[in-house]
Design brief:
By secondary structure, the protein is mostly beta strands. It contains 2 helices and 12 strands, in the order βαββαβββββββββ. It has one domain: q2cbj1_9rhob like domain (Jelly Rolls), CATH 2.60.120. The protein is globular and about 50 Å long. 23% of the residues are buried.
Length: 201
């Protein structure tokens, strides 16, 4: 039997194909001093870190990846582009975590990993909604899992619908985990006059 996934949640898995510059990494490390405690990790007070001049090239690269994801997933009939609205850094140390959450007031969200414990650090994505029957599987797959983990490498980039819940379990190693998270919104025209759904941003 062939199983065909219907209405799948699109998770974009990509990389920034270069090493960050010494100035970019120095800025990422220095911003840890301007953070607040956010549940199990520390988050920058600034929610526009990618607007810093040191990150101009990185922001351009990330927005290009977001646009590529958007076009592959939605194949828009109208001229629509995506742009990053908010961006912030998370610093998670041993025994830290990220609570399960989604990103309201956003269309596409992303996480870039400039400094993690490659091959060990992971992120969990959660299936939401009521489970009608509790069937315990012999092995988990994309159809029966309620949680799906992605093992990460340095410079990985994940893109996903902002409504998709995600989180990080307790970090059990001493290496600090740094992630750059961001939200993106739409610019252009969406919808259709005949459907009475046209919106212009």
């Amino acid at each position: 039997m062939r199983l065909q996934p219907l209405f799948a949640v699109p998770l974009g898995v990509d990389k920034i194909e270069r090493e960050l510059t010494s100035q970019e990494m120095a800025t990422i490390l220095s911003l840890e001093h301007d953070t607040y405690q956010n549940s199990g990790s520390r988050t920058t007070n600034s929610v526009n870190v990618l607007d810093r001049p040191e990150f101009a090239e990185l922001k351009t690269e990330l927005e290009a990846k977001v646009q590529d994801y958007f076009e592959q997933v939605f194949d828009p009939a109208t001229k629509v582009s995506c742009y990053i609205t908010l961006s912030w850094l998370n610093y998670t140390k041993e025994n830290g975590y990220h609570h399960k959450h989604s990103h309201p007031n956003s269309f596409i969200s992303g996480v870039f990993y400039p400094k993690i414990n490659s091959g060990v650090d992971k992120i969990n994505f959660y299936q939401t909604g009521h489970q009608h029957v509790d069937i315990v599987p012999k092995a988990f797959n994309e159809y029966n899992a309620r949680v799906w983990s992605i093992i990460l490498q340095n410079n990985d980039l994940l893109l996903f619908p902002s409504s998709l819940e995600h989180g990080v379990e307790l970090v059990k190693h001493p290496e600090p985990r740094i992630s750059l998270a961001f939200n993106a919104w739409l610019r252009g025209e969406v919808g259709n006059d005949h459907r009475i759904t046209t919106m212009r941003f």
